[in-house]
Structures are given as structure tokens and as C-alpha cells.
Amino acid sequence: MNQSKLSIVDLTKRYAPGLDPAVDKLSMEVEEGHLVALLGPSGCGKTTTLRMVAGLMDPTAGSIIVDGRDITQTPVNKRGMGMVFQSYALFPHMDVAQNVAFGLQMRRVPPAEQSRRVAAALDMVKLGHLAKRKVRELSGGQQQRIALARALVVEPTLLLLDEPLSNLDAKLRETMRSEIRSIQQRTRATTLFVTHDQDEALDMADRIAVMNGGLIEQYDSPSVIYERPNTRFVADFIGQANFLTASVVADNGPTASGGATAGGASERNYTVDVDGLGRYGATGHPGFVGSTRELVVRPHRLRVSLEARGGEAGIAGTIVGVSYTGDTVGFSVRVGERTLQAQFMTSSAAVPRPGDSAYLSWNPSDAYLLPGNPEVAAA
Amino acid sequence: MNEAPLFKPKFKIGKPLFGILVFILYVFLLAPLLVVVVTSFSSNQYLSFPPQGFTLKWYEVLPDESIFVNGMQVSLIVAVSVTLITLAIGVPAALALERFEFKGKGAVLSLFLSPLLVPSIVLALGLVLILSPLRLTNTYEGIIIGHVAITFPFVVRTTMMSLATTDTSCEAAARILGAGPWTVFRRITLPIIQPGVIAGGVIAFIVSFDEAVISLFVAQSGLPTLPVQVLRYVENSADAAVAALSVILILISLVVVVIVERVMGLRKAL
């Protein structure tokens, strides 16, 4: 088996005895050359985890292994990492080239090689012409790139990014996102990236660790995180989601796509009874028959028809809200006690109005029974 | 849209009246200095005002007054030593208080700042009682110990202020890039807090150079500093040489401030 670049084993951080741990027995493996996003709301422990990997914070328990070597006790200045801070943390009393050269000086790289590598790093972030500038003369985006060049010029064992885009305006953030990603792929730097922005994580990461309350709720590729969320928290945090309660009635065999679950068994098609609203198709892990679980359907995977057609009636509801944004149109559809969200690309067809009746249905493969959450009590 | 002023004065006193008020305040602050400067050039036989004629003779006699020359020498040695020693212990103390958590931090901080709250005459008396048995009265060591005690709080305060306003992630970034604790301090922290450190140093120098009470108690007979000599001189004679000397002292303080302002901006530092 391929050895991981970074292994985190049972990492725990407790700020004070008696307090809930900020990071609770977290374990994960990061492959060489991958960009892994630690994603979660503030206070979920993602930054604490990153600072422990960097060595800026001592873990209460657990270990951090890089290239097969346990570095848990290695002091921060001997870990050979590169980090970009949220505030960029450029040294204000040095010019751009001196900032980038700092790590090379610490490694006693000969001056000639230093200037060659600094120039190469600045070219990589397309700011070679600013080498002699003072830090305070740079814009936020430029500072961000210099910080990236400074972290990468030392060819770090791991590149650590702590919310590096959160201080940039929305437009620049998009540009920097793809730029960081392309630099990361060119340098093949194994990267740990902390963010609270799901779009950033989905766009940039090879793998995403969704964190909540000091625990990893799910660690998977972006598409799996989105399509096959493990828990209600993940489904809710990544994108939009409708949640329904479903009693699993019958197993209809393996799915056509043959999607494999984490355990290796293939996914099954089920017939489920949704809140007494009728029987519909759904997908999930094997062995769910007879249980009651949460069912998640993304708003744009819901089909809405305005009249009941024979054969496929769907769940009857009333449109209570329409939000038209040009590219897409969203409906709030009231079904009994709950309101479901549906979303479509707009077409030239007439947009329904609030008060119209609507019938909701979905493809069985678009309705997913959450495996991570415990069974819910039957409605 | 006009922004409403944060503070609206109850009475509008008008521009000319306000100008006069400011002028009076300046006169109040600067008049004693002006009188001293004018007196130093006056040909009056004794220290008095107004002047009766112009002369430079008070400046001419200064280099021959050995007590002033000696006093100046003592004061400069003391002030320079005090500045260096206070910085050497004050900056690390500020660093410890601002960057590290430890038990009794609040108490230590209060202790460090307490010399500002104690009347210097009380401090001076206490110092004499301690220094006498140690045979440190009338020595440079004795005066320097006393002056370090009163200048230390200034250095701690200005340095802590600089530290509090800097982003600690610069230090973290340097550590990650491979710098050990001492390198981080020398290459990153110190240059960033330099304004506060220099401001503290300037204040320490001026306070020590000006200080009379402690110097008087600790080293009156053996090692009089310039302010002590001035005090003694005025007790015994009443000519205007002392005014000329005062002008020199003002100029020294001014030169220090101007140099610092030119080199790195004292206003930024303070």
C-alpha cells in the first residue's frame, strides 16, 4: 500500500481539563501531492488541527506522522513546513525579496542559490517585478501571493493554508482559488487547507474532511461528500438539502451504477415510505430494510410538475414562494407540515406563481438515506 | 450628507477667542523656558528679570566652572548606562508579560509599574537605607540602581504597547520557516517593536538625565549629577551662569528628541 505523506492518529486537544476537547481523537491520512480541505463552521477544531500539525500548538494526545516519521515532539522550527496565514503575516520591515528569502537564510542556502530560488518563486506567483517593494505598498492579493511564494520557496514537507482567501474580496477570491490550486498541482506540494467556505473546498480540494465539534464527520472526495453525505450535518453544510423521514419498506437489489459504500458492499435500491406521503424510490447502504432513516434530496434534483400525471403522481404540495435569479429559479413548496426547496435552470416556459399546486418527485438515485445518523423514531 | 460632530461644544467661543486661549496655554507652558533663555543672555549681575543688557559671558564661563563640567560628565555616564540597562531588562520583561501566560502575571505587572506611583522622595529615602549598608551610596552603581527603578516602568509600558499592536502570526511564520526563538526575537520581533523600544529608551534617558531627588539623596556628596550641581549652585551664588546651563540642558534634550524624530519618527514611536 502507498504510504501516506501525513498521518494524524487520535489527535486530541483539550484547552483546559474538564472542557470539551477542541479536537477529539481525530485521525486522517493525506496522500502525497493531495490538497486536503479541513472544512467546517468556526469552532469545529479545524484551525486547532492545522496549528498542531504546524507545531504551533502542542496536542494533548495523539500523534502526527510525516513521511513515516513521528514529528509530534519535533519543535516547530525543525518541521520544515510552509504556512500561509489568514493575515498573510509578511514581515513588515523587510521588502518582498527579503520576506521570500527568510526561510532560505534559515536553511543556510548559499546567497547565489537564494537569489535564484527567490526569483523563481516570485515568478511562479507572477510578482517578479515587485521584489524590491515594501510589504505595505502591496495590495491584499499581492500580499497573499508573496506569502504563498515565501511558504513554497523552501520546498516544504507540507503546505499549510489557514483560511488564506478570507481577507480578499469576492472576485479576487475566485481568481486566487484557481491560482493556488494550479500552483499546488505544479509543485505537487501536499497541502492542508483550512476553510469555512464550502465552495472553496469543493472547487480546490482532492479530499475534504468535514469537521464538526472536534470530530471529522466525513472524509471523502468532493463529489462523494456532495452526493453521498454521511450525516445530516454534512448534507446540510455542503450545498442545500431537503430532509425527509423515510421508513425503508423493501430492498430492490443493487443499484445500476453499482456505487460502492465505504464498507465495500454495493449500494441498494430501496422502496421507502416517506412520512405517510406515499412510496418512493431511494438509495442507500445495504441492510436498511425495516429501519426509519433520514432521506436527503438536493433542491435541484427534485422534479416539480404542475399537474398530476398518471403513473407518477408525486407528493402533492402548494408553491408558497418563488425566487427568480435569472439563471435559476427556486420554489418553496409546502407539503403538509414542512416546506421543501426545489431549484431549476430557467427556461422560457412560464414561471409558476405562489398558490399554484405542484407535485414533487425524484429519481431513486437522487434520494439518499443517510447512513451516519442513527435511526430516527418512526413518524 | 454632513456627518454630525462627535462632540458639540455648549458655547461657541468663536475662532479668534479660541486662538487667544491656545496662545495663553502656550505662554503658560513655555514662559518659564523663555525667561530662562532670555536671562541667560542678560547682563544683570544677579539672577533677575527683566534683563538690562545683552551678554554672552555666562556661556563663556561655563567651561571653566568645573562643577558643571563634572556634573555633566556624571549625568551623561549615568543616563547612558541607565538607558542601556533599562532596555536590556525592560524589553524582555515586556515580552514575557505580553507574550506568555504565567501565574501572578497581574501582580508582576503592577509591581513593575509601581515606581511610577511612589513619590520619588519616598523611593529615594528607601534607596539610601538599602544602599548605605551595601556601601553603594556615592557610587555610579547606586545612582544607576535608583534611576533604573524609576525608568523601568516607562520602557515596559512603551514596549508592551508596541507588542500588543503587532500581529503574532509574523513570529509564528518565522518559526515555521525555521527560525529558533533567539532568531525570531532578533530578526522579527525586535525590528517590529523598535519604535516602542526607542521611545522607551528616549524617555529613560531624559528622565535619568533630569532626575534630582534620588541623585541628591544617594550621591549628593560624592558623585553629584548635573541637576544636583545646579541645585547647589543656586543655593550658593545667584549669577545667571545657571540659566546658561539650563539652556544647554534644554538643547541636549531637544537634540535627542530631534535626532530620534528624524531617524524614525518619535511621534510614531510614542
Which consecutive residue ranges of chain A, at least 5 long each, have pLDDT under 50? none
* Total individual domains of chain B: 2
- CA-based gyration radius of chain A: 25 Å
Q: Could you say what the CATH architecture of the largest domain in chain B is?
A: Orthogonal Bundle
Biggest interface: chains and residue counts?
Answer: A-B, 26 and 18 residues
The residue fraction in helices of chain A comes out at 10-25%
CATH fold-level name of the largest domain in chain B: MetI-like fold
Instruction: Report the top-level CATH class of the largest domain in chain A.
Output: Alpha Beta
Record the SSE blueprint.
The complex is a heterodimer of chains A (379) and B (270).
Chain A: E1 6-13, E2 23-30, E3 35-39, H1 46-54, E4 61-66, E5 69-70, E6 82-84, H2 96-106, H3 111-124, H4 140-152, E7 159-162, H5 170-187, E8 191-195, H6 198-204, E9 207-212, E10 215-220, H7 222-227, H8 232-237, E11 242-254, E12 268-274, E13 279-284, E14 292-297, E15 303-305, E16 315-324, E17 328-335, E18 338-345, E19 357-361, E20 367-369
Parallel strand pairs in A: 3-8, 3-9, 6-7, 7-8
Antiparallel strand pairs in A: 1-2, 1-4, 4-5, 9-10, 11-12, 11-14, 12-13, 14-20, 15-19, 16-17, 16-19, 17-18
Helix pairs in contact in A: 2-3, 2-4, 3-4, 4-5
Chain B: H1 15-40, H2 57-61, H3 66-99, H4 105-113, H5 120-131, H6 140-164, H7 169-176, H8 181-210, H9 213-219, H10 226-236, H11 241-264, H12 266-269
